[in-house]
Amino acid sequence: MDKKSLTTSSFHIKLALIILIILLFFVVSVQVAHAAEWQSGNYRWANGTRLMMYRGYISGEYFNWAATSVSNWNSALKQGSSNVQFVIAASPYASKGVIYYEGNYGKNGWVGLATGISLKAQGIYIVDGYFQIQLNTYAPYNPNITAKRCATAHEMGHTLWLGDVNTVSSGNDRLMWWTTTSNTAPTLSDICVLKTRY
Ligand SMILES: [Zn+2]
Fold this sequence. Notes:
The protein is of the alpha/beta class and 198 residues long. The protein has a single domain (3-195), classed as Collagenase (Catalytic Domain). Helix content is 31%, strand content 21%. The protein contains 4 helices and 6 strands. Strands 1, 2, 3, 4, 5 and 6 form a 6-stranded mixed sheet that branches. α2 (60-78) crosses α3. Mean pLDDT is 84; it is low at 1-8 and 26-39. The structure holds zinc ion (ZN).
């Protein structure tokens, strides 16, 4: 499909699906009621994508762990065949990127929130747009270094279109477990799922 054909009605259906999935993304990330894993939505970054990841708005443990998470997720991605990788960037990219923010967003139900912005797809492939990740410094939610590391790494998984896991049979050992407070890196189970997409 070339870029021109994206104006067809089939694209609008896909766009509606993407918007719906983004809305689900929000609901799921709020860590209240959870629907099924929306990773069955099947989207993924196009092969060879370099996801430019910007850390300029975060500090301390979040800043450090974002870099470690780049290494961890890149190692996991290398087990697949898509050649998608994260790259730490010197400036925020509004296309094919991930931008982290931190702030005291208060007692709102989430420790971290990944939101897709201006995402565009061709078929199952995301070809443009970016994700913002908000990390909530509200102390009771992220009380220690491990909690901050979990949130930083987990939200990065969402930017690969991986969904929350909320049924024990799908693996409560996973970094993508919806309320993980113990995993700071993708586990073998996370990598198994990742390899079905990348
Ligand atoms: Zn999540």
